[in-house]
Amino acid sequence: MKVTIDETKCNGAGICVMQLPDVFRFQEGSKKGAVTKAEVPARMERKLKEVASQCPAGAILVIAK
Ligand code: SF4
């Protein structure tokens, strides 16, 4: 499974980074979220979907394979 962040929507709330630091980080020089994993392990799927639903900007897109 893959995940991306729509940077035009991300408002830097940081919930993704706090909740799943294995997958998300802040971009250097800005507070926008970035994805660190090209492929997210299946064991993280539930948490990933939970975090995506908590993003206040609706900027996290989970792509099921
Ligand atoms: S939770 Fe959403 S708005 Fe906040 S940094 Fe992550 S992607 Fe951006």
Describe the protein's topology.
Layout: E1 2-5, H1 15-19, E2 24-26, E3 33-35, H2 45-54, E4 60-63
Describe the protein's architecture and organization.
The structure is a single chain. This protein is an alpha+beta fold and 65 residues long. The chain has one domain: Alpha-Beta Plaits (2-Layer Sandwich). 23% of the residues lie in helices and 22% in strands. It is built from two helices and four strands; from the N terminus they run E-H-E-E-H-E. The strands form two sheets. It has a two-stranded antiparallel sheet with strand order 1-4. The protein has a two-stranded antiparallel sheet with strand order 2-3. The longest helix is centred in the C-terminal third of the chain and has 10 residues, at 45-54.
Summarize, please.
It contains two helices and four strands, in the order E-H-E-E-H-E. The protein has 65 residues and is an alpha+beta fold.
Bound molecules: iron/sulfur cluster
How much strand content do the residues show?
15-25%
CATH topology: Alpha-Beta Plaits
- What is the count of structural domains? 1
The secondary structure category is: alpha+beta
Question: Count of helices?
Answer: 2
End-to-end separation in angstroms reads 5 Å
Q: Bin the helical content.
A: 10-25%
How would you characterize the largest beta sheet? 2 strands, antiparallel
- Total beta strand runs: 4
Quaternary form = single chain
